[in-house]
Amino acid sequence: MSTLVLDHRDLSLDYENECILIRQPQQPPRSIPLGRLARILVMHSVQVTTRLIGQCQHRGVDFIVLNGRHHEHSFAVLASHQRQAARRVLQYQITSSEERALPLAKRLVRHKLAVTRYSLWRQSVNRERLASLRGCQQSVQQCTSLQQLRGVEGSAQRETFKCWREQLPPQLGFNRRERRPPPDPVNAILSLSFTLLYQEASRQSLVHGLDPWLGIYHQLTPGRLSLACDLMEPLRPLIEAWVVQLFCEGELDNRHFSTSTQGCRLGKHGREIYYRLWHDRLPRWSRRLSAYAALLAHYLEQTPDASQHGATMWKTGT
């Protein structure tokens, strides 16, 4: 099972004889069996039939649209097979009460910070920076509210990006994390990578019968799949380290990007490089997301009050 990346303009997509039919001006039509695909990734505006969308849903193929200029406008039509109402009822009970959600959220943040410290240690970051992050990790247990917990996590994240900045070539112009629009190549690739990971986290939450809109750490917010954001948190340090590696090893550099008033964007040749490398890594990250979603689903089902078992959540290794 593979990912079909459609990175051309003026495409029209249809379904015919168990295949996706791809038409492009002045080109012969192409057809690819849907049975070979796990997901379809569209990079530009296309014409698509409802017949194809319906068949993707029926056959378990995710249909993902990425907006290169405005990542918040990206979306996915995900093929969900295991909608389990009982799990969602338990999920609603946890997320509707901060008292119940806080123990699990604290465990999530502590695990993320442990992954962060490990990722930075592998990059030979100095001990003082690692000690600062360890202090943030220890502060998590004293947090008495989600708001306080987010403050600790935010402080740790700012310290983390200072470390990444020191690792990156200075000509990339990376100073801090900026999203809309990304002003430099590093921010552009971080935003793209987190958008892709967000779609996969949403898919894994649906596969495990969870409601992707209702998070434990991230609050319910219009337009945001908060549980998908929760599942992503422990993987963010790994994505950050991978992005830094792409630039430090010269896989990507300034030549692969263009900058305008709408921000920094990855060019066509850069996209070819990036998506090849991304899809090499995606299976292992997808397995981690699946493990986190499965672990959450397990504790929702196994305990009357899953929040009492926050200390055992999020223990998948770094």
Automatic annotation (TrEMBL):
Say which domain of life the source belongs to: Bacteria
What is this protein's function per UniProt?
Answer: CRISPR (clustered regularly interspaced short palindromic repeat), is an adaptive immune system that provides protection against mobile genetic elements (viruses, transposable elements and conjugative plasmids). CRISPR clusters contain spacers, sequences complementary to antecedent mobile elements, and target invading nucleic acids. CRISPR clusters are transcribed and processed into CRISPR RNA (crRNA). Acts as a dsDNA endonuclease. Involved in the integration of spacer DNA into the CRISPR cassette.
What family does this chain come from, according to its entry? Belongs to the CRISPR-associated endonuclease Cas1 family.
The cofactor(s) it depends on are: Mg(2+); Mn(2+)
Looking up Gene3D superfamilies in the UniProt record yields:
CRISPR-associated endonuclease Cas1, C-terminal domain, CRISPR-associated endonuclease Cas1, N-terminal domain
A single Gene Ontology biological process assigned to it is:
maintenance of CRISPR repeat elements
Species in which this protein is naturally found: Halopseudomonas pachastrellae
Mind telling me which NCBIfam families this protein's record contains?
A: cas1
Q: How is the subunit organization of this protein annotated in UniProt?
A: Homodimer, forms a heterotetramer with a Cas2 homodimer.
Q: What is its EC number?
A: 3.1.-.-
Q: Which UniProt keywords apply?
A: Antiviral defense, DNA-binding, Endonuclease, Hydrolase, Magnesium, Manganese, Metal-binding, Nuclease
Could you tell me which CDD domains the record lists for this protein?
Cas1_I-II-III
Q: Which residues bind Mn(2+)?
A: E153, H218, E233
Q: What is the protein's name according to its record?
A: CRISPR-associated endonuclease Cas1
Report TM segments: none
Q: Which GO terms describe its molecular function?
A: DNA binding; endonuclease activity; hydrolase activity; metal ion binding
Pfam families reported in the protein's UniProt record:
Cas_Cas1
